[in-house]
Every structure is written in C-alpha cells, then in structure tokens.
Amino acid sequence: MSHYESMSYQEQGLSPGGRLRQLLATGKTLVCPGVYDGFSARMALAAGFECLYMTGAGVSMSRIGMADLGLATQTEMVDTAGMIANIDPKTPLIADADTGYGTAANVFRTVERYITAGVAGFHLEDQVVTKRCGHLKGKECVTLSEYLTRIKAAVEARKRRGSDIVIIARTDSLATHGLGEALRRLKAAVEVGADAVFLEAISTKEQLEAYCSTFRGSRVVTLHNMVQGSPQAYKITPKEAEHYGLGIMLYPAVCLLPAYVGITSALRALKGGLVEDDPEGSTPAQIFQVCGMDEIQRTDNEVSDWVQKFEAENK
Ligand SMILES: C[C@](O)(C(=O)O)[C@H](CC(=O)O)C(=O)O
C-alpha cells in the first residue's frame, strides 16, 4: 500500500464524490446496502460496508409512514441524506433522488442540496413526478426530452457548485417502452453528462446481458438494483456482478425486510403477553454501542477534563 493509499480520505483531500469515484475506479463491484435512518445506517457501517445507499422507499416508509409512491418531499430526502452521510463522512452515500421533485429548477436545487449535505452520488429517473416504486405495475415515464432536461439540470448544478458528485441516470422505461428505448435513454443521459446508468427492474438474464454489453469497455459505470423479494429483479450474486462488470449493486430492502419481519414478530409476541429478553441476547447497551456510544462518551470526558484543567490553570 502506498503512503497516499494509507492516508484517510480527509487527508487525501477527497470530497464525498471523490471518495465514491475512487472506489468505483478500482473496477470492483461496490455492494451498497439500502439504509433509511440513523439506526440502519449505523448497523451497515458497523458491518463494514464501504459505501451506503439511501433507499427512497425506506425513507418514505420510515420517515413519513407511506409506501413508495412519490410522497416523500425533497426536504425530507435531503434531511435524511445529510444525517446519514455525516454519521461517518469517510463512507460515501449514494442517495435516491427519485424524479428530482419537480421541474428542472427543482432538480437543480435537489442536486445543490445533496452536494451541500455531503452526498457522494445520487440517481435520477424518468418516471412522472407522481412516481411509484420501480418494481410496481402501472408506471408512467416522461418523454426523453423531459428526462434529458432533468439530467442536464443535474449536470449544471454539479458544474456550478464545482462538485464531483456522481450522477447516476436511472430509467424506468424498460417496463413502459421496452429494452431498445430504455438503452437509448441511458446512452443519451450519458452524453448529457451522467457518470453511471441504472436500468430499473431488469428481470431476465438477456436484459442484464444486453444492458451490460451496451456499456462494457466505456467509462460508464453500470448499476443493478437487487430488490430482494421482487419478481422484477433478476437476482445475481456479488461474484456474478463482478463477472458482468457491474460497478454498483444496490440492495434497497436488505435492512427493511428483516426490520419488518423482526419487529412484527416481537410485536405479535408482546400482543400475546410474552415479554422476554431477546433470545439472541441483544441489549440496549449493545445497540447504543453500535450508535457511537463510546465515541460520544470519550468526547464528553475529554471536553470536561479540558475545562477542569483550564479552570485550574486560570484560578
Ligand atoms: C431503488 C428504489 O428506488 C428505492 O427507493 O430503494 C426502489 C426500491 C423498492 O421500492 O423496493 C425502486 O426500485 O424503485
């Protein structure tokens, strides 16, 4: 390892986008667990992931208690993204930017706000603003020209802010227009300035192969969305993803589904009158540890030691 490589990202002077670009440049597939709040983000960090993904579906459900139907606002998304991105600024965060939340001016502002919040990369799609989860039926997409307007607004915001935030162009048009149009849209988005592409709801091997071979050998990073439990998601392992040359694998439901299962079962047990210690032996102290307890207490102690010393010296 060179001296430069052994330096922390901050010492290297890298921005969040720069860190993400550095990880992508290794050519390895970046496995990104979907997190949606401080707790899930802390658990993913504790598990040692190099990059996190903020799932819009997860934010919509955890923050406003609503299904992924385009109800979460720009402010709710930016607030959550900023909180997650700053828990451990060394670990880049890719955030869902949905449709950009309005017109070109809204997209521009979303991107500016994500940059300021410390987000490393985001994906922007071509569904209508009243969007829905990409794995549901009944999606509608805007025209290619409207889609490119969104991408261009994002590229402009990045340029005017002097940022290197990674722009991931997502298309949902595979479901509405077919593979040919979907690939055409992604190629056009790359021409406008997107760094990476995201073909939503790939459901067959043939689609995945056509998608990957379209961008193979180019500078463009390809992303595959592995929504566990969705029949619209063609499932591959991270090892297979390497073989396909995929740069990013998203796992939006990796925390959501176990949270649903675990919490529901604990609540059922409580409803049935059973309140027991966790059979796995987990305790509140243990989860406080995951959420930075030692560091917070160390800081507290250091600060009060310093103040005591200062007061003693200045009596
Ligand atoms: C990737 C996604 O946009 C997300 O919000 O995580 C969703 C995932 C989901 O709804 O399960 C999507 O694929 O649309």
TrEMBL record:
InterPro entries: ICL/PEPM, Isocitrate_lyase_ph_CS, Pyrv/PenolPyrv_kinase-like_dom, Pyrv_kinase-like_dom_sf. One of its GO terms (molecular function) is methylisocitrate lyase activity. It comes from the Eukaryota. Transmembrane segments: none annotated. PANTHER family: PHOSPHOENOLPYRUVATE CARBOXYLASE, PHOSPHOENOLPYRUVATE CARBOXYLASE FAMILY PROTEIN. PROSITE patterns: ISOCITRATE_LYASE. This is Methylisocitrate lyase. It comes from Xylaria bambusicola. It catalyses: (2S,3R)-3-hydroxybutane-1,2,3-tricarboxylate = pyruvate + succinate. Pfam families: PEP_mutase (PF13714).
